[in-house]
Design brief:
This protein is an alpha/beta fold and 394 residues long.
Length: 394
């Protein structure tokens, strides 16, 4: 939810919750005052100072909205990893592991997005659904089709969501009807970035999106890293999602020490990069992410549904890795970050049952991951507008 008429100050009086840091993941303020102007937070204070604020900002009674006893505000939810074109497949294919699931369900669906009518219909539905679930910021994978990927960005903008949009790049080991040449992929990725930046929209930004090392040549990954650096844009991809994926990657990149080093050597690890999953990480790989200040999108629903594994998120956080939450539709069946929050807790409890020394996540931790965790550092480095979720307790 964004805000008010140009120039008018809107004040919300009542309860709100938010995260301060990973060490202070939940703060509850029962008598808060939040002032908003031109879509940005003007002040955050407490009711005790309301009269002074009225005088300072020339506030009138009709500019103040008083929250009810069963209402409160919280930051909008951040989905750091979601595949918009896979939305029609949500709930399908949960009988298969990752690599087989991609071939049987995912690639055939994504190949349809050359059809702009189909793309428009689908993308409107997924953005609307995520907004209804409280997601005000999302990092979307689109497909290899540049025009429909740009369309996704336009729809995100029209519907008032903050989005990072990735035109997917893949030039090898892919279906014949869903693959690019290396030259096509690099040209299309750069054109996509240029066209998105021309819109001069600070709420919707392009993201360099190599699908993963299995479908990207070394040349393509290096070229995409160069484009990201040239235009100072984010990077998103998948890393260490399943054991079979890791095994196949190491068969293709024999000179790399591990999967994470493949991305490091090709320039894809930066402080503006998000690696989805990171379920099966060696110590060296975690240290590599920390060294580059690269973030991780934890996708617990997907990790369970397509049998990828249990990600020890607490260990990543303790090591200094920045972590947010992702729904990973349609590996994850639900576009709701609330569901991802629940499954993050359950995943950590299962790990704790296997290893009592592992400290499971609680509801406060996952609130942080779903909000400030996903927006911290350079994950989503934009001017901060007033995005919030209005909660009514029935």
């Amino acid at each position: 939810m964004s805000t008010e008429k140009e120039g008018k100050i809107r004040v919300f009086l009542g309860s709100y919750i938010h995260s301060i840091s990973s060490d202070e993941p939940l703060q509850i303020v029962s008598n808060g005052v939040i002032g908003v102007k031109n879509g940005k937070i003007l002040f955050v204070d407490v009711e005790e100072h309301l009269e002074e604020l009225k005088e300072q900002y020339a506030l009138t009674s009709d500019s103040i909205y008083i929250l009810g006893q069963c209402e409160f505000l919280m930051p909008g939810l951040v989905d750091t990893h979601i595949h918009a074109p896979q939305y029609p497949n949500a709930g399908l294919g949960l009988d298969l592991p990752l690599l087989e699931w991609l071939q049987q369900y995912t690639f055939p669906m994504e190949a349809r997005f050359h059809d702009m009518h189909f793309a428009r219909s689908t993308y409107k539905k997924v953005v609307e659904r995520t907004l209804k679930n409280g997601t005000t910021t999302a990092s979307y994978f689109a497909t290899i089709h540049r025009q429909s990927s740009e369309l996704l960005g336009d729809i995100v903008d029209q519907m008032g969501q903050r989005g990072f949009i990735g035109k997917v790049s893949m030039d090898c080991y892919s279906p014949e009807d869903y693959v690019e040449t290396t030259e096509e992929s690099l040209r299309s990725a750069e054109d996509f970035v240029i066209n998105m930046l021309k819109r001069q929209n600070n709420r919707v930004r392009p993201t360099i999106t190599p699908r993963f090392a299995l479908t990207c040549s070394d040349t393509l990954m290096r070229g995409l890293a160069d484009i990201s650096k040239k235009y100072d844009v984010h990077i998103q991809t998948h890393l260490c999602e399943s054991e079979s994926e890791i095994k196949r990657t190491m068969e293709l990149f024999l000179n790399s020490k591990n999967y994470t080093r493949v991305y490091e050597e090709t320039g894809l690890l930066t402080d503006k990069s998000i690696m989805a999953h990171c379920v099966h990480m060696e110590k060296d790989e975690v240290e590599t992410l920390v060294r580059h200040s690269t973030g991780v999108s934890h996708c617990p629903t997907s990790n369970i549904c397509i049998l990828s594994g249990l990600c020890p998120v607490r260990d990543l956080m303790d090591a200094g890795v920045r972590v947010g939450l992702g729904t990973d539709v349609s590996g994850g069946y639900s576009p709701s970050i609330l569901e991802a929050m629940r499954h993050a807790i359950l995943t950590s409890k299962i790990i704790h049952m296997k290893d009592p020394n592992y400290k499971p996540l609680d509801f406060k931790d996952v609130l942080y991951l779903a909000t400030l965790g996903g927006a911290s550092g350079n994950f989503f480095q934009l001017p901060t507008p007033f995005y919030f979720t209005f909660v009514i307790i029935a």
